[in-house]
Amino acid sequence: MQDKAQATGVYRPQSNLLPMLKLTALFVALTASLLAAAPSSTVSEGVIAAPVDQVWAAWTTIEGLKAWVAPHADITLELDGRMRTNYSPEGRLGDAGTIENRILAFEPRRMLSIRVAKPPENFPFRERVGEMWTILYFEPTADGKTKLRIVGLGFGADETAQKMRAFFQAGNDYTLTMLQKRFSQ
Question: Is residue 19 part of a domain?
Fold first, then answer.
C-alpha cells in the first residue's frame, strides 16, 4: 500500500514539524538581513596632483614608500611579494612595529591588491586582520592627475569586524590625505 505522499505526489510534513520549519526559515531570513545590513567594505577615493606613473611609484618602490608612508620601507613587487613598513623613526624593518603586507595581485599602473600578513605587535585586530584585504585602483584623469580609489574588503558583520572596518576606513582616509599632501608640495 502506498503512503499518502506517494499516492498524491505532494509531500505534507507532519504537523509537529511545521512550527520548527517556520522558526528555521525566520532565523535564516533574519540572519541574512543582518549580514546584508552590516557594511563589508571600505572605500576611500580622491584625486592626487600627479600622473599615474608617479603615484604608482609612490606605492610600489622603496624610495616612493619612504617619501611619504614611513621612514623604513621595502617592497618586492611580484605575486606574493611583500611590502614592509615601519612608521617609527627609531624603529627598523622586522621589529615589533613592522607591518608586513603580501601582494595578492597587481596590474602595473592600474591596480595593487595587498593583505596584511603580519601586523605590528600592538595592532588591535591581530587575530582578525587576515580576513580582509585592500585593493588600490589608479586611474588617470583628463588633466594629468590620478584618481586613487582604496577599497577594503572582507569585513564580517560581527562587532569586532565592524570595529576593524571603521579602523581601516579611518586609516585609508588618512593614507589618501597623506599621499595628496605628498604631491601638493
Answer: no
The string of DSSP codes covering 53-107 is: HHHHHHHHSHHHHHHHT-SEEEE--STT-EEEEE--TT--TTSTT-EEEEEEEEE
In a domain, 47, yes or no: yes
Decide if 93 is inside a domain: yes
pLDDT at 39: 78
DSSP H helix total and E strand total for the chain? 5, 7
Find where cell 619612504 sits: 66
In-domain check, residue 11: no
Stretches in the chain below the pLDDT threshold 50: 5, 31, 33-35, 37
Domain CATH number, residue 77? 3.30.530.20
Residues 55, 57, 60, 65, CA torsion sign: negative
Q: Is-contact 133 166, C-beta < 8 A?
A: no
Give the total number of structural domains in the chain.
1
Q: Which domain holds residue 107?
A: 39-184
* pLDDT for residue 7: 55
* End-to-end Cα separation, the chain, in angstroms: 89
